[in-house]
């Protein structure tokens, strides 16, 4: 089963695509969709939508896993993040993909056993679970792979 994980962001949206079959996990693709702060909000959202749509059409994932929005003191940042997140969800929804949403705490807990784990611990577990020789190039891609892995780990726990 192919799972597409998304770490939404307006400036940088991470994506990670994995295959989970018979307790084997394998990296298919990962990277970052970047937009320029010089462009309009509408254009930046269009880029995110189009790039995620291309990934879905290219890889045909069964599941779309995305991080829930976290609330910060900066309301404008939270709203912009919400726009990027909604755009990503719309791209998956239009193509009738099952969507799962996980909090940052749940993702960290699933991967490391600690909901307060540091980013380095999450990256370490992503590398180990996917048997990678090196860490993904960006934190956004690594986080997106963690979000995809969270779906897999949560469903394995449900099957026990």
Fold and architecture overview:
- The chain is 50% helix and 23% strand.
- By secondary structure, it is α/β, with parallel strands linked by helices.
- It has a 5-stranded mixed beta sheet.
- The chain starts with a strand and ends with a helix.
- The model has no long low-confidence stretch (mean pLDDT 92).
Question: Mind summarizing the main beta sheet?
Answer: 5 strands, mixed
Give the termini distance in whole angstroms.
18 Å
Q: If helices are DSSP runs of H or I spanning 4 or more residues, what is the number of helices?
A: 5
Low-confidence stretches: none
| Helix percentage | 40-55%
The structure class reads alpha/beta
The largest beta-sheet arranges its strands as: 3-2-1-4-5
Shape: globular
Proportion in β-strands: 15-25%
Order of helices and strands: EEEHEHEHHH
Integer average pLDDT: 92
DSSP, total strands: 5
